[in-house]
Design brief:
It is built from six helices and 18 strands. By secondary structure, the protein is α+β, with helices and mostly antiparallel strands. Strand 12 and strand 13 form a beta hairpin. Keywords: Hydrolase, Membrane, Protease, Transmembrane, Transmembrane helix.
Length: 302
């Protein structure tokens, strides 16, 4: 009887297992690289982007097209000062695109913060260098004649706000008064602005209006404190007459104008907070039954 060479079989088995381990490790690395630099998936929990995106949708976000972000994850988790860099992309962000971003006010409304686990999805209404305003609940960008955002929703909101009862209802929801929350300005979701959206390198003179509109941005860029005292402005205890911005900013709006926590309420979004552009719904399910919404799967997001 021929003796079985167990040592030989053991060596073969070891090589097979080692090969499978390498394949699995390579798959893990490829998946991580893909999620960090190319595509990522996000779920839609709210109705703020209806009807384009609905609760229960899972969207595919293209990071590569605009340039993926690189930052220290440990610093982000520990809420330490964070440096975010963006790799070169194939194109710039565009007005009208649906974007996923880290919400810039996760803890308090008077200071920009960063929560690596808190993401919003909205439509880009205004770009760096634009002047945006809202007139009769409709978005306007000076010099741009295209319709912006969900115009059907804006018309419906305008009709609602044309009545005292409609205004009272939005006030009751705490959804009427708008950024920057200053009673002297009196901006609201029916009439807002004009608000200039800074681009990197833009300069402004410091006055009481610019202090109200851009204080949070300046303090975030400088990691310091901007205060006004007797008509004089002090940044980190040094008086300044003007300011030059270091970042690009965007004005974001939800397609569901009745129920969307967007730039109308919290202001402008730093570019480095943007994850990428939503391209498709790769899965959609009923939140109550768990059944797939087949008519929404692989639907292009525009």
């Amino acid at each position: 009887m021929k003796q079985v060479n167990w040592r030989k079989y053991g060596q073969v088995l070891y090589k097979v297992l080692a090969g499978l381990t390498c394949v699995y490790a390579a798959w893990i690395v490829l998946r991580i690289v893909t999620q960090v630099f190319v595509f990522a998936s996000f779920s839609i929990p709210t109705a703020s982007m209806k009807p384009v995106l609905c609760p229960g949708d899972y969207v595919l976000v293209n990071k590569f097209l605009k340039g993926a972000r690189i930052f220290d994850l440990e610093d982000a988790v520990e809420h330490r000062p964070l440096k975010i860099k963006r790799l070169p992309g194939l194109e710039k962000f565009r007005r009208g695109e649906v974007l996923v971003f880290n919400f810039p006010y996760p803890e308090r409304w008077d200071s920009i913060g960063f929560d690596v686990m808190l993401y919003y999805v909205k439509r880009c209404i205004a770009m760096p260098g634009d002047t945006v305003e809202i007139r009769n609940a409709r978005y306007r960008v000076r010099g741009i004649h295209d319709e912006l955002g969900n115009t059907d929703s804006q018309r419906s909101l305008a009709a609602m706000l044309a009545t005292d009862r409609g205004v009272e209802e939005m006030i009751h929801r705490n959804s009427y008064n708008a950024f920057p929350g200053d009673s002297a300005l009196g901006w609201n979701i029916k009439d807002f602005g004009p608000l200039y959206v800074p681009a990197c390198g833009d300069s402004i003179r410091m006055d009481s209006l610019h202090f109200k509109l851009y204080r949070n941005l300046i303090e975030w860029e400088q990691r310091g404190k901007l205060v006004c005292n007797d008509g004089h402005f002090y940044l980190n205890s040094e008086e300044i007459k003007g300011y030059r911005f270091k970042s690009n900013y965007y004005f974001m709006g939800g397609d569901n104008c009745f129920d969307s926590q967007d730039s109308r309420y919290w202001g402008l979004l730093p570019e480095c907070y943007i994850v990428g552009r939503v391209v498709r719904i790769w899965k959609s399910e009923n939140r109550f039954t768990g059944k797939l919404n087949w008519d929404r799967i692989w639907k292009k997001v525009e």
